[in-house]
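Section 5: illustrative case.
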C-alpha cells in the first residue's frame, strides 16, 4: 500500500514500482483492439489525453484543467508521458483542479 493525497492505494504486485502505469493494455474479449508488436490491445487511458492535448496544443500547455479526482494518478501520468515525448522539463505551466458540485448535498 502507499499513501498519496491522503488516500490509501493498493499496490499492484505485477508492477516494478507503485507509480508504474500502462501505456498499452492487452485486449479483453469483446473489446475494441488494434494489432501491435505487443499483441492485440489498446492504448492506456492516459495516452488518449496526452495524444489529444499534444495534437491540439502542441508541445506545451499554459493551463490544464480537470476535476480534483484526476490530479493523481491521471494528470501525473499525462505529465510524465508528455514530458518524455516532447523531451521537455515542464509540459504544463499550471494545473487547475476543480472540486465537485452537488446541488442536493446538505452540509
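Designed sequence:
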Amino acid at each position: 500500500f502507499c499513501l498519496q493525497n491522503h488516500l490509501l492505494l493498493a499496490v499492484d504486485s505485477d508492477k516494478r514500482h507503485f507509480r508504474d502505469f500502462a501505456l498499452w493494455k492487452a485486449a479483453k474479449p469483446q473489446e475494441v483492439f488494434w494489432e501491435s508488436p505487443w499483441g492485440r490491445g489498446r492504448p492506456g487511458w492516459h495516452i488518449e489525453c496526452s495524444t489529444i492535448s499534444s495534437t491540439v496544443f502542441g508541445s506545451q500547455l499554459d493551463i490544464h484543467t480537470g476535476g480534483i479526482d484526476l490530479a493523481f494518478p491521471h494528470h501525473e501520468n499525462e505529465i510524465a508521458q508528455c514530458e518524455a515525448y516532447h523531451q521537455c522539463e515542464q509540459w504544463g505551466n499550471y494545473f487547475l483542479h476543480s472540486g465537485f458540485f452537488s446541488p442536493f448535498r446538505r452540509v
